[in-house]
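Figure S4 source data
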Amino acid sequence: MLLDTHIFLWWLFDDPKLGSSIRRHLKNKDNEIYVSAASVWEISTKFRLGRLSEASEVAKDVPEWIIRAGFQSMPVTARHAQLAGDWELSHRDPFDRMLAAQAKLEKMPLATVDRQLKNFPITIFPDEK
């Protein structure tokens, strides 16, 4: 499973907004959980711009926090970048486009509550229809 940036941060901060089904999935050590390099970029960028002041410790070394959480890093590849740029969707957020492309190409669900990501041809977790 690939985590959307907010899901990763909610996990680190034990935020009550993190749903119980995602929380159970993340606690299960048998599950492979990935955090994208795009999320590292997003956290660093938003912190620098003053939009994530509560994540100051995380923003200092996001890769270390991925390891501490027991998750794996997912690099951004040229294939990911190509799909993120090519998709004919009006979604303008480059971080979201990259996460969707990675989820699609790596054939894994994207854990998110962002309703706009449901417009991409990917599997969303949890699937709340």
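Figure S5 source data
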Amino acid sequence: MVIRFKKGKHQSKHKPDTLTCIRDDGSITWTPLHRGFVHHDFAHYVVETTLGFENAFFGLVSKGYDIPDFSKPKAKRPFEIPEEAMDTEPIVALLQADFPNTPYPQDAGSTGIFREYSAALPISITDEQLEIMRQELRALLQQWRNLQAGESMVLQFHT
């Protein structure tokens, strides 16, 4: 699946950042992103690819779930969110918290908030996995910072 993040031209004039996913079968789903939400989606990408998750946000989108449906109330959502997707959220949140001054961090702390609270996570994260996720998130955020309004960056997601 191709994931395209496009930097909005005028956040205040209704030209927001957007997330578009083009599945392997050619079908497309997309959504405008609220200010700063790119950081959250980058963290999802890094967590899911590093940990090999197939049933979290991008894995589900790849399987045909439409992005706007994730925002619907549970009773109106056309699917149940799998346990793996639920387990992913606290990992994403802690990874984001490790980067101060979101969405434009300079650097994560040496131990960071992640390790301080990781015992409460639904799965264990190794130091090596955490370092990979931090480095990849840092690189994605730097790429995003370097984009001009209207430019896009493309990522690949494989399940």
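The longest strand covers residues 17-22. The chain has one domain: 2-156.
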